[in-house]
Amino acid sequence: MNKVHEKAVEAQFGPRARAYVESAVHAQGADLEALDGIVQAARPPHALDLGAGGGHVSYVMARHAARVTAADLSSEMLAAVRATALQKGLGNIETVQAPAEKLPFDDASFDFLGCRYSAHHWRDFVGGLRQARRVLKSGGRAVFIDAFASGQALFDTHLQAVELLRDTSHVRDYTAAEWIGALGRAGFALAGCRTWRLRMDFPTWTARMRTPDENARAIRILQSAASAETRAYFAIEADGSFLLDVLMIEATAG
């Protein structure tokens, strides 16, 4: 993995660890409720939270898995996860600092894998998915949750632009087709996919990442200058709040 990008991601997210633990967008949602049901049915001996961030996937999986390993690039994020797990009385969560593209685990180490709002930061998307497949046992279940881009170039370009201005460590929100294709190349079999739309409150969305004022203004300029079709698609509001497309893919390690 490119060390420059790796350091950029850590610099962006380390100081914001507590904000991500406390973020309502990250701490709750229909996706976590669905994930809870999936993990409850699987009851894995050992689960991996890949790109743990604020640890919300870990907290869900820890209710039903014997052990959970939370892996993330940021040591500060992991420290926040450890503290929060302690507060929640979850003693079965351990943390490991590592990039998604170079996981320090043996092959087939895990029975279940969850990955939420992480992959759009990976410099090597397919490489990260291949690592996920490598460390997951054959037949193991994986759940990937992330923002995704429309297949229409006009909307795709707008989304990537505002995401990058808000967070300079952003790489790409992939389309559903790109996700499915990359998972197949990494050795996963698709088991299911669902999508929904999530309202992003602009002041909260930018404050959580401490987006510089000039970047926030640039996003608002892009939103104002966007075509009527683009503004309608993202349901852009007067204060810049908008709707984000989110997907949840269930896959099985082939």
Task: Describe the protein in words.
The chain is built from twelve helices and seven strands. The chain is of the alpha/beta class and 254 residues long. It has one domain (3-148, 170-197, 245-253): Rossmann fold. Strands 3-2-1-4-5-7-6 form a seven-stranded mixed sheet, sandwiched between helices. Helix 4 (30-42) packs parallel to helix 5 (56-62) and helix 7 (125-135) crosses helix 9. The two termini are 25 Å apart. The model has no long low-confidence stretch (mean pLDDT 92).
List keywords for this structure.
single chain; 254 residues; alpha/beta; Rossmann fold; 7-stranded mixed sheet; 12 helices; globular
In short:
This protein has helices at residues 3-13, 17-22, 24-27, 30-42, 56-62, 75-88, 125-135, 153-166, 176-186, 202-208, 213-225, 228-233; strands at residues 46-50, 67-72, 93-97, 110-116, 136-147, 188-200, 242-253.
Major sheet characteristics: 7 strands, mixed
CATH superfamily: Vaccinia Virus protein VP39
The computed structural class is alpha/beta
Q: How much helix, percentage-wise, in residues? A: 40-55%
CATH topology: Rossmann fold
| Unreliable parts | none
What is the mean predicted local confidence, pLDDT?
Answer: 92
Could you give the count of β-strands?
7
Radius of gyration: 18 Å
Shape: globular
Spatial ordering of strands, largest sheet: 3-2-1-4-5-7-6
